[in-house]
Specification:
The chain has 208 residues and is mainly alpha-helical. It is built from 11 helices and no strands.
């Protein structure tokens, strides 16, 4: 579902010991921790090696540049987000997705994203990793949930690409990025109950 890590994340050496997936995961986690603490401008290979408890050569065997390291770490976040829900109910599927989104923006993904926003215009590799990794996952998941609802007859055909479908995730992202108010499960439930479901009932239900 999600794309493989960006080019350059594979080791460049010949032969030697096989890569240890647990060490790769530790380095990615350390990268995200340093990114959240210091921002992209303050992230150095030295800081990552100190946080991960590995030698610098271990990192350079896997990632040649800082941007490749960060891009791989960000892209990998999408792999842990799970598969789109299919409970048989649009409301319950959306509730699960919105709660996952709340957890994501309040966790390592959210911290990494905020730290990278200023770098995205100048670092296309990072922007692409984010769009194809975590954001690609969310986009696919929401589209899948709306398509499942259409197949069940809960909504009219073609709703996947409408503003109504966007109304589920947009308020979460807007509040997170542009407000100092908390983004929590209660707010996600409010969005679903007071915004999304009334829009579905008003304009998207089959037969309307």
């Amino acid at each position: 579902m999600l794309p493989p890590p960006p080019a350059g994340s594979a080791p460049s050496g010949r032969g030697g010991r096989p890569r240890d997936p647990s060490r790769d995961a530790a380095i990615r986690a350390a990268t995200l921790k340093v990114l959240a603490d210091s921002g992209y401008a303050g992230l150095t290979m030295d800081a990552v090696t100190a946080e991960a408890g590995v030698g610098k050569a271990t990192i350079y065997r896997r990632w040649r540049t800082r941007s490749q390291l960060v891009a791989d770490a960000v892209s990998s976040l999408g792999a842990d987000l799970g598969v789109p829900p299919d409970t048989g109910s649009l409301a319950e599927d959306l509730r699960i997705l919105l709660h996952w989104m709340v957890a994501a923006v309040n966790g390592p993904l959210g911290a990494a994203t905020l730290s990278l926003l200023s770098a995205f215009p100048h670092e296309p590799e990072l922007r692409e990793a984010f769009q194809q990794g975590p954001m690609g996952y969310w986009s696919t998941s929401f589209r899948t949930v709306w398509a499942q609802a259409e197949e069940r007859g809960e909504v009219r055909p073609g709703v996947v690409d409408t503003a109504v479908a966007s109304s589920a995730s947009a308020p979460i992202l807007q509040r997170w990025l542009f407000s100092d108010q908390p983004v929590d499960h209660a707010y996600a439930d409010e969005v679903l109950t007071d915004v999304v479901l009334p829009l579905v009932q008003a304009g998207c239900a089959v037969g309307h």
